[in-house]
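2024-03-11 09:14:02 DEBUG pipeline.ingest accepted 1 chain
2024-03-11 09:14:02 DEBUG pipeline.ingest length=334
2024-03-11 09:14:03 DEBUG pipeline.predict start
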Amino acid sequence: MLVDPTFNKDEFEKEKKRSLAFLEQEKESPRGVLGSYWDKLFYGNHVYGNKLTGSLSTVSDLKVEDLKKFYQGNYIPNGSAISVVGDFKTADMKTKLVKLLSGWKKGNSPQPALAAKPVPAPTAAKVLLVNKDDAKETTLIIGGPGIKRNNPDYIPLQVVNTAFGGRFTSWLNDELRVNTGLTYGANSRFSSFKNAGTFFISTFTATKTTEPTIDKALEVLDKLHKQGLDDRTLTSAKNYVKGQFPPRYETAGQLANLLNEMFWYGFDESFINNFQKNVDELTVAKAKEIVAKYYPREKLQFVFIGKSEDIKKIVQKLGSVTEVQIKDDKLKAF
């Protein structure tokens, strides 16, 4: 499949129909498209803002010849990596790989490193309001700049975010779900690519509780900056992160994927070897520095999907508003 794909026309048409059906259906689920709107708002015309599944118009225009051309220009061994994990003799496996892939021909460099283009930092608070006329709830993201995947603070940042919004007993979920009943779930995460990344808080609520939900999420973020994590909270987050770590890399497939991530994102085996040490060495003081450095609190970016008529006046207070319709086909830079 890698060396000599056929791109059968009938199979291509089946997959195209499935893709178009998916693109039609996903507009009915705000949580399914929220991330695409967020990426477009934050990254704009940068390639990280592109919607991976495309749009109805772009997929409709595709022909099997387009796939063949894309394959020829991009599916080449130049700059590629193959990770193999299992119980085998290295020399024997290398012989097999050479035999299997000897017909995989090198090509020209597929295209410029478009993702390496700098991502401008936000200059002001912005709101993207996605109108869904029949919405009974508001689905939202609040966030800002994040980190690259190879950032040296990647592990301590995961510990801090576990306490803030990365697990069910996090501050965000406690305040928005358990204590106030504003939502069934709230979380935060750092989404990290090779050259850039974002931080965001994500949740949903009934239309009538949109404003208190926004206020409460921002209040918890402010609390993180002003109060920071205490020893008990930090210890709990450390134990959780260490407990969740081993199952992520216990299978051959998971390890092979990790090796490819090391290759692509530019980090090495110290990620594994020093993981527990990096977690254990995180102090309350260092956690406070992490928060101040990486958690945005000004010029925040917002995405809301809901009934515009009911929530526009609320979100206007947060920044300049751009309104679009969820029924619109293509996403554009905002």
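2024-03-11 09:14:41 DEBUG pipeline.report Residues 9-26 form the longest helix (18 residues).
2024-03-11 09:14:41 DEBUG pipeline.predict end
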